[in-house]
Specification:
The complex is a heterodimer of chains A (507) and B (277). Chain A is of the alpha/beta class and 507 residues long. Chain A has three domains: 2-235, Orthogonal Bundle (MetI-like fold), CATH 1.10.3720.10; 242-343 and 445-503, Periplasmic binding protein-like II (D-Maltodextrin-Binding Protein, domain 2, 3-Layer(aba) Sandwich), CATH 3.40.190.10; 344-435, Osmoprotection protein (prox), domain 2 (D-Maltodextrin-Binding Protein, domain 2). Chain A is built from 21 helices and ten strands. In chain B, a hairpin with a 2-residue loop joins β1 and β2 (37-47). Classes of the chains: A alpha/beta (507), B alpha/beta (277).
């Protein structure tokens, strides 16, 4: 708990920055757009239509789609910008719609009176229409504020720090205190913002000076805090820290902390960990220099980045081909292998495997029709799965994608009969699972490899040299025990990584 | 005073000189079409300085459309309106409206403003300073017989009659020489309506305003109008003093219209005499 609370100021500040700046920008776009729509009748329907379509895009997808779009435009595609733009787009509809209905809902008799007493169109808007539509517009602002604060927790996978960091890493590490801290903090922030805007609107409408001044003061302080903390890093002339990426599972959290600790000890440079990135988000971020280093797996690059067929691929050959391809195509450096493989491996409960006499994947062919298979969110969309299915002619009765941390529970409870586990996962042992041999080499080799960004290779060669010292220092057994330590709550990823660095002498 | 105006049809030279600052309005061949419908067709009439002209007619007669064309709330399809010889089409609409007081049928007070802010709206648009506006609001509250301490109250706390008194004060705030009134007392109960009618007669006498007053109420037209213009299906049926219209109605419609108060009075009398209905 105290560990979570120590992170709260950082996450809360980042969350405030994202939400408030997105809300402010959303209002700056939507209110004028709404006003224009009431003045030029034919644009009202198209504008509202587009905003509604944006709203129907699932929020996580809207944020995720910003990454390739911004990358294609050569802009910062990971971190604050994609989250900010996605959230801003998300905030538009409620404010826009309420601006339009608020102004359209003003009594026509009052609009005529405004013209009759001699107001110009501008005076009519600012003195009559906007004040009378204000309660409706403010209701839209409140809806947007609550949505944005909630949705901002989904900015973590696109690399923006937020209260979602508690939730994503907490779910992954089965640390439900962290999840709870994240949820409670986000809910409290949403309620606070909603209440502030409400009190402000009431104060203005009912002409209560203290309420108006009080709510305005608190909002100004919040906006100023968000603005200043956001701008400070840009004003700071010192070099930015080495940024280390991590995908969304235990091993990645441990390795990112391990890399950070190693770099700090070995070079004295400051580091920053961006955790819970989506799988291809991490690689795109690296090749665009938005993170400097992270750990990926040769088979992942082979299958999902290079789009190669995986049938019967040879381990050494894959590694050499990946190294050449990423360098030539994106200027990414393969620093070295870490010394273990983390492959997808089909696994099932030991007892059941024994009963059916299953030891290898080809043994599944007869039984698959009566079995359901579970996998993480990406597995069933990956080339490896297609290769497994066709190589072994497997036809499971159902394929169920779920959170990786729930997958082991699901197979233990018999909700699914087989899972696509990770070979270094500590839970293979704790859940007493049998790993089935990939006897026809359908799944490519998954050597853990250290990748460095083009910029790091050019500008900070000594960091690459330092990282190279980690080559082949972590065995599959070591990795599995570190993963198990975190999963079994024996320590946080940072603590487990520190223990590893303390116990070995890498130089 | 101006008693001689009623029934004379023409202002005496003396009266005219007293109201040297009031305007003459001239409607020339005024027409308004809404799509296929011709709401007002080729209407020509003149309102003398200091005169109150009633536009009388049923719904759809074009009387309100005519009124709204005077301050360009509705733009004419053809024809012209002259204020003291000046073509209103050449004046910026908002500038024109600030020179003309307008009292709305649906009152149209701004609910987010106080009584004082509502009254002072046109002066504030004209850039009067606060001191001058405050004095004017005080003066007008007295004129329309409202308590002078009512200024800071929200308009929602006022009765319908009080609200329309504020509406009249608002129309008068920037000292217009011309007032337009669109069935201003139509929505009020009979007793309140009568009180406001009397107040209005007094205010108009005090200020010597030129006014156009739209109503469908025959009795109101007879009580208030120096002259009455009867409109029927977008056309001017007849214009004249109440007695002229009574004595020599030009059309069957005018005749029928003019006889309604008499018929109603007879019916009331018979009722008082105990005759069965």
């Amino acid at each position: 708990m105290s560990e979570q609370l120590a992170l709260l100021p950082e996450y809360l500040t980042a969350h405030l920055q994202l939400s408030l700046l997105a809300l402010a920008m959303g209002a700056l776009v939507s209110i004028p757009l709404g006003i224009v729509a009431t003045r030029i009748p034919w644009i009202e329907q198209p504008v509202l239509g587009v905003a509604s379509v944006v709203q129907t895009i699932p929020s996580l997808a809207l944020l995720a789609v910003m990454v390739p779009l911004l990358a294609a435009a050569n802009l910062q595609s990971i971190g604050f910008l994609p989250a900010f733009i996605g959230l801003m787009m998300y905030s538009v509809l409620p404010i826009l719609r309420n601006t339009v209905t608020g102004i359209a809902g003003v009594d026509p008799a009052l609009v005529e009176a405004a013209r009759g007493v001699g107001m110009t169109p501008g005076q009519r808007l600012f003195r009559v229409e906007l004040p009378l539509a204000a309660p409706v517009i403010v209701a839209g602002l409140r809806t947007s504020a609550v949505w944005i604060v909630g949705t901002a927790t989904l900015s973590t996978p696109v690399g923006a720090t937020s209260l979602g960091n508690f939730i994503f890493s907490g779910l992954q590490l089965r640390d439900y205190t962290a999840v709870l801290v994240g949820c409670v903090a986000a809910a409290a922030l949403a309620i606070l913002l909603d209440a502030l805007v409400f009190v402000l609107e009431q104060g203005v409408r009912l002409r209560r000076r203290t309420r108006t001044v009080g709510a305005t003061a608190v909002l100004v302080v919040l906006f100023a805090y968000a603005g200043i903390t956001f701008a400070l890093p840009y004003l700071d002339s010192t070099a930015r820290p080495i940024r280390i990426g991590a995908k969304t599972f235990t091993e990645q959290y441990v390795l990112s902390e391990l890399l950070a600790g190693h770099i700090e000890r070995d070079t004295g440079l400051a580091t920053e960990v961006l955790s819970s990135l989506g799988s291809t988000v991490a690689y795109d971020a690296l090749r665009n220099d938005q993170i400097d280093v992270y750990v990926d797996y040769s088979g992942t690059i082979w299958a999902t980045v290079m789009n190669r067929p995986s049938l019967g691929a040879n381990r050494e050959q894959v590694l050499r081909e990946v190294e050449r391809w990423i360098d030539e195509t994106h200027g990414v450096t393969l620093v070295g292998t870490l010394g273990f493989e983390n492959t997808y491996a089909l696994a099932m409960p030991e007892g059941e495997a024994e009963r059916l006499g299953i030891t290898k994947v080809s043994d599944l062919t007869l039984h698959a029709a009566n079995m359901e298979i579970g996998g993480d969110y990406e597995f069933f969309a990956r080339a490896e799965w297609e290769a497994v299915e066709t190589t072994y002619s497997l036809q499971f009765s159902d394929e169920r994608a779920m959170d990786a941390s729930l997958m082991y529970q699901a197979v233990e409870l018999g909700n699914v009969q087989v899972i696509a586990a990770y070979s270094t996962d500590g839970r293979i042992d704790t859940s007493n699972l049998r790993v089935l041999e990939d006897d026809r080499n359908a799944i490519p080799p998954y050597d853990a490899i250290l990748l460095a960004s083009p910029q790091l290779a050019v500008e900070q060669g000594h960091v690459i040299a330092s990282l190279a010292k980690l080559t082949d220092t972590i065995s599959a057994e070591t990795m599995r025990s570190m993963n198990r330590a975190v999963d079994e709550d024996e320590g946080s990823p940072a603590e487990v990584a520190r223990e590893f660095l303390d116990s070995t002498s890498i130089r | 005073m101006i008693k001689n105006v009623r029934g004379s049809g023409e202002l005496s030279p003396r009266t005219r000189s007293r109201y040297h600052n009031v305007v003459l309005i001239e409607l020339r061949e005024l027409s308004k079409r809404f799509g296929e419908l011709e709401a007002v067709s080729s209407l020509s009439l003149t309102v003398e300085p200091g005169e109150l002209l009633v536009l009388l007619g049923g719904s759809g007669s074009g009387k309100t459309t005519t009124l709204k064309m005077v301050n360009r709330l509705v733009e004419p399809s053809s024809g012209a309106i002259l204020l003291d010889g000046e073509d209103t089409g050449a004046i910026e609409p908002h500038a024109l409206r600030r020179r003309i007081g307008y009292v709305f049928q649906r009152i149209g007070l701004f609910p987010h403003m106080t009584v004082a802010e509502n009254i002072a709206i046109t002066p504030s648009l004209l850039g009067w300073d606060d001191e001058r506006s405050r004095a004017r609001v005080h003066e007008l509250l007295e004129l329309v017989e409202l308590p002078v301490d009512m200024g800071p109250r929200p308009v929602s706390e006022l009765s319908g009659g009080q609200q329309q008194r504020v509406g009249v004060a608002r129309a008068l705030a920037a000292k217009p020489k011309l007032m337009l009134l669109d069935e201003p007392f139509g929505a009020l109960d009979p007793i309140t309506r009568e009180r406001l009618q009397f107040s209005f007669v007094r205010i108009r006498k005090d200020l010597g305003l030129t006014a156009i007053f739209v109503t469908h109420d025959m009795l109101e037209a007879l009580l208030l109008g120096d002259r009455i213009a009867v409109m029927h299906e977008g056309k001017l049926a007849q214009i004249g003093t109440p007695s002229e219209l009574m004595r020599s109605p030009a059309t069957a419609y005018v005749e029928q219209l003019m006889s309604t108060p008499k018929r109603q009075a007879d019916a009331v009398e018979r009722l008082l005499d105990g005759e069965p209905r």
